[in-house]
User: Fold Squalene monooxygenase from Cadophora malorum.
Amino acid sequence: MSLSQFQAANEERRRVYHEADVVVVGAGVFGCAVAFALAKQGRSVLLLERWLKEPDRIVGELLQPGGVSALEKLGLAHCTEDIDAIPVHGYEVIYYGQGVNIPYPPNAGAPPTKGSQEYTNEKGGRPEGRAFHHGRFISQLRRACASQANITIVETEVTDTITSEHKPQVLGVKSRTLNPKTGEKEEDYYFGQLTIIADGYASKFRKQYITKQPIVKSKFYALELIDCPLPAPFHGTVILGDASPVLLYQIGTHETRALIDIPENLPAASVKNGGVRGYLRNVVLPTLPQQMQPSFEAALEDGKIPRSMPNSFLPPSTQMEKGVVVLGDAMNMRHPLTGGGMTVAFNDVVLLSDLLSPERIPDLGDTVAIKQAMKDFHWQRKGLSSIINILSMALYSLFAANDRQLSALKKGCFAYFQRGGNCIDGPSSLLAGIIRQPLVLVYHFFAVAVLSIWLVIQDTVGGFLGLWKLPLAVEESIRVFYKACVVIFPFIFSEVRT
Ligand SMILES: Cc1cc2nc3c(=O)[nH]c(=O)nc-3n(C[C@H](O)[C@H](O)[C@H](O)COP(=O)(O)OP(=O)(O)OC[C@H]3O[C@@H](n4cnc5c(N)ncnc54)[C@H](O)[C@@H]3O)c2cc1C
Ligand SMILES: *[C@@H]1O[C@H](CO)[C@@H](O)[C@H](O)[C@H]1NC(C)=O
Assistant:
């Protein structure tokens, strides 16, 4: 049988008999990328998505340089083209009206240097991120999958997994597909040697296969600003003050996304105080740079309650079930403050497709080999994912400071950035998904803690005449240091467990 006959036979097996090597549930960020990567290796893939219409969501709009680089490795770099994407060169952090610029580090592209061994980009120059409308990007990814001869995409809502009667092994999935003739949804079945579930943050299957469940402490409310002049064009903007953090980035020629973090049960956003809209107008608006205020106000004018999404934390876990793996947001989530979700997803796909390659695992039905590969995956992905997970959660704790010690750490963090040099190159490389050494994160975090303590001592003692206040300063320093540990260690522990 020639290759084209073989591929045609596989296509028929998928279309008529609903059988493939791999069944992927969810054609989102992770699902599309993994389907594409495995198909390129010659696997026959069924990609199942409940809704193939272009998504309209407020998530996944900024891709860090480390994610762009992973997309290039997957052969999907063209998906950020022709969607009016905006280049991102770094961040601008504004603390009580004062700004500091944090560009992605120079010379982090090829050739690889110490600390960036695995980071390369096509142009070999300064790292660049991309911001875009999520739906347009997803449509591009789906188009890339649709034009892949080894993938068949089906619009169907997966409702359950199918388990073998003889042994505890998943054989495929059950779903509901709309019959266009009758207008009714009909039961449907799809079979694969391996089922990859990537059904996103509200995963239907997580409870069944993962012991950990997400924790939600705040939500991001979203506005779309039109022609908003950013203080630093082509940079993500983070606004810090008394309120919880606000994030802004341009996602199209005329559109800028504003994401406003609102902790659960925040009194300032209670109904009595005018609800979310009252909070945005009375508390958030005045903290924005003057030039941005008119477009922010205009976006509020439509009178609707802005759209929102929960900001979840879900530490990663290994999986032991046979024939099925749960990945993407369904398996691991972090606060979207640092825009790292898609970067984790694409790097996961690069690693996973390497571990599952036909050279290593000729037959995806080999559950012993898959189990070992998933164990390796769990530990090997940490070089990048644990940094992005811990950084986002720790930074959010500081930026949303709600006590004196956290506020001291937040102030120290900003002062750290103001020092420039390695104090911004290090953190920005971590955030960008360029550095893959978790210890570098721990180093910078504690450097921030030490600087915060120094500032606390200075503020308390003042000068020579204030020396009598030294014991007070020491006491507060210990509290700040203790707080820094309480902030970061639980997130570190959540990464070293299975
Ligand atoms: C407010 C917010 C902002 C964010 N901003 C960023 C950002 O700027 N940058 C970034 O990198 N990350 C960001 N993220 C994170 C990012 O969105 C996720 O990490 C990423 O989308 C995860 O990809 P996924 O494929 O796991 O899930 P998704 O992209 O959500 O894909 C899941 C897919 O599965 C489909 N599906 C679900 N259930 C079924 C079913 N039963 N049957 C069939 N199909 C199904 C869905 O329709 C969807 O297409 C943000 C997250 C939030 C909450
Ligand atoms: C599709 O799979 C075949 C093997 O079945 C492989 O030879 C081919 O390279 C794959 N096609 C693409 C476009 O990657």
Remarks:
- Residues 109-117 have pLDDT under 50 and may be disordered.
- Residues 176 and 182 are 14 Å apart (CA to CA).
- The chain has 14 helices and 17 strands.
- Residues 3, 6-7, 39-40, 42, 148-150 surround 2-acetamido-2-deoxy-beta-D-glucopyranose (ligand 2) (CB under 6 Å).
